[in-house]
Amino acid sequence: MKVKDLFTPLFPCTNLRAYKEVEGEEGLFIFSRNKQEGLKMKAQASVKEQTATRTGADLLVEALIEQGVDTLFGYPGGAVLPIYDAIYRAEGSFDHILPRHEQGAIHAAEGYARVANRAGVVIGTSGPGATNLVTGIADAMMDSIPLVIFTGQVAKGVIGTDAFQESDIMGITTPITKHNYQVQEIEELPRIVKEAFHIATTGRPGPVVVDIPKDISSMVHNKEIDSDFHLPGYQPTVKPNPLQINKLHEALVEAKKPVVLAGSGVIHAEASEHLKEFVRNYQLPVTTTLLGLGSYPGNDDLSLGMAGMHGTYSANMALYECDLLINIGSRFDDRLTGNLQHFAPHATVAHIDIDPAEIGKNIPTDIPIVSDAKAALESLNEKTVKALDHNEWMKQIDQNEAEYPLWHNQPEEAIVPQWLMQKVYEYTKGEAIVTTDVGQHQMWAAQYYHFDRPNRWVTSGGLGTMGYGFPAAIGAQIADPDSTCVAVVGDGGFQMTLQELSVLQERGLPVKVLIVNNQALGMVRQWQEKFYSERYSESIIDTQPDFVKLAESYNIPGYFIDSQEALEAELPKILADDKPAVIDCRVLQKENVYPMIAPGKGLHEMIGVKP
Amino acid sequence: MKRIVTATVHNRSGVLNRVTGLLSKRQFNIESISVGRTEVEGVSKMTFVVEVEDNRKLEQLTKQLNKQIDVLKVSDITDKAIVARELAMVKVISNPQIRSEIQSIIEPFRASIIDVSKESVTVQVTGKSDKVDALIDLLRPYGIKELARTGVTAFTRGHQPQVAEFKPYSLLK
């Protein structure tokens, strides 16, 4: 059979296409062509029933089972029909979560990956299914979340002909994936799946896309296939260079003003306990990045809280004034560093990162250590502990903490979001999984919810994706069904992915959606107030659905709360309940996130540090 | 500064796209790029000539390239003893009267005429980029109808001289 014989799909209006079935060497093909009568619709889809034989899709399913995958987030469609058929036939091997939009699937998988600390698996169909995944792939790339994404593709013979639901997903996802594959031969499939999981979860984690043409997933193949792989171009450095560790240890015992900056690399490496030991041995002050929250207990005496644009004054001043900065698993993002010229100007910078490309990318580094955070901390902890001569420094930090704590307005009745976050923290005893979108509510949650453990904080950091928090909470709840899971979302972001309420309805997942409703795109409004002379261009959105009724239409309890009294009466009950909930919590619109480093300013130039 | 960077890569679909996409995403200016197979089956060699601001940017370039799964090895060979060659074909307007003139111009460059028509001759020249540049400059007054260059391809010499004796290769001279 010739590839050029392949022809146009017959039902362009639906995902399901009817095909004339032709079997050739390359398996089941998909077209209909009749010279005399032109193209003719065939009313009956004649996809051949395949029961006893193994198809490419079955190989995929077997490979997934071999990888220990038990949860899939996906949405079916034409090009993944064979895969969904294999999943159906694999009865009970997977818990398949069906979101109502592919974006929901991938954010849920991100939440799952973040909390379970293993790869999230996503399936989407070709064309729009795949392009709808793009935001989530980019998000996972920025935040180093391990994902393996399987996209359907049109049959190999029609790739490149602008076929129905074709998109160049390889081209589209190349810049936003750690790696991507298009399966060209069925024999490659098991190996590629294995490689994909290996690449996604080792080294610096990230998303890997595997694009599977439909003829490959439907092709019959009964032979055993070797899935061994060898990746000479991918050998992450896990163990630190002992000489560099010595150098860091020397710098540390000499330091008068040391500070540790912990990023999400600590969480990925499951190195929180090692970090604790290291920090306590030397009594080092610790600050974390946004994504590193939870890597070190937020309530600990040595914790300075989050650093960066909306970090605490004491954390940012510590970074500014330190003479030794030990960065463990953070990539010196611009929201953390502020103006690079004023970042840690007097410090010897040590940077531990598993990705060598991050070292020296933004900040010149004196002691580069390419290593997994856990391995590096283990090596450091083997060194003889020496008490540091840094009392002055600790005193100075304590003073900053005492003099410039986080502050907020406190009206009599109305709710301010900062107070709301404190209450959520109090009622969940600091043990909930908290997910957020991006913006003001995210910053308030980061400031006021003190995470004592890793893998409790799920947020879109690098890409800053609105609509991330709610679907991520679904994935997080699935990964950890016994924990309270609170999706702290803005009224803007929630409306971007609220269709996933149907998943709560379907599964009764007890996710608590807390809408911090200020009827505005808060952070945009704040910047317009500060830097655009209060010209609130398109940022005040006072037309909204009735969120309570909306929730009820999904058969989910909805609550409307607009006073402190009501909140104190209702919220503890709602959070303790084992049912899902949507809480429309009205907060003051004009609250701003403080303290703040204005764009272009250095860490020492914080504004709003005092009321 | 101009640097010559070579990368050996797995010859898989999409690898060129991944590498060039990476360079453009990170705002590196590629002056030329040449790709071809090597002595090992399934392995290709890419040679880039890139313009970078400083050493930090250069370090980023090699690190980012190295990070790609299908990239096996990246080397900045600018400061090594290397052999670097580029091929150019130049179609020059010429009537029979000035053909011999052109012939005499290209001779010292060890270039050759590989096609002749009534109105033009096509010259093929191989060598370092500066030599190719020089010849093109000389031919320009005659009117260049068409010009195609392959971009530099390079590797290190079999023998690397000791630091004291070697003279760095420069694209700028």
What key attributes describe this structure?
heterodimer, A: 611 residues, alpha/beta, Rossmann fold, 3 domains, six-stranded parallel β-sheet, 22 strands, globular, B: 173 residues, alpha+beta, Alpha-Beta Plaits, five-stranded antiparallel β-sheet, four-stranded antiparallel β-sheet, 4 helices
Please characterize this protein's 3D structure.
The complex is a heterodimer of chains A (611) and B (173). Chain A is α/β, with parallel strands linked by helices and 611 residues long. In chain A, the strands form five sheets. Chain A has a six-stranded parallel sheet with strand order 4-3-5-6-8-7, sandwiched between helices. In chain A, strands 11-10-9-12-13-14 form a six-stranded parallel sheet, with helices on both faces. The longest helix of chain A is centred in the first third of the chain and has 15 residues, at 102-116. By secondary structure, chain B is of the alpha+beta class. Chain B folds into two domains: 2-76, ACT domain (Alpha-Beta Plaits, 2-Layer Sandwich), CATH 3.30.70.260; 83-154, Alpha-Beta Plaits (2-Layer Sandwich), CATH 3.30.70.1150. Chain B has helices at residues 15-25, 55-67, 96-106, 129-139, and strands at 2-10, 29-37, 43-51, 71-76, 82-93, 112-116, 120-127, 144-149, 153-156. In chain B, the strands form two sheets. In chain B, strands 5, 6, 7, 8 and 9 form a five-stranded antiparallel sheet that branches. In chain B, strands 2-3-1-4 form a four-stranded antiparallel sheet, covered by helices on one side. Chain B starts with a strand and ends in a 17-residue tail after the last strand. The chains are: A alpha/beta (611), B alpha+beta (173). The interface between A and B is medium-sized, with 20 and 21 residues.
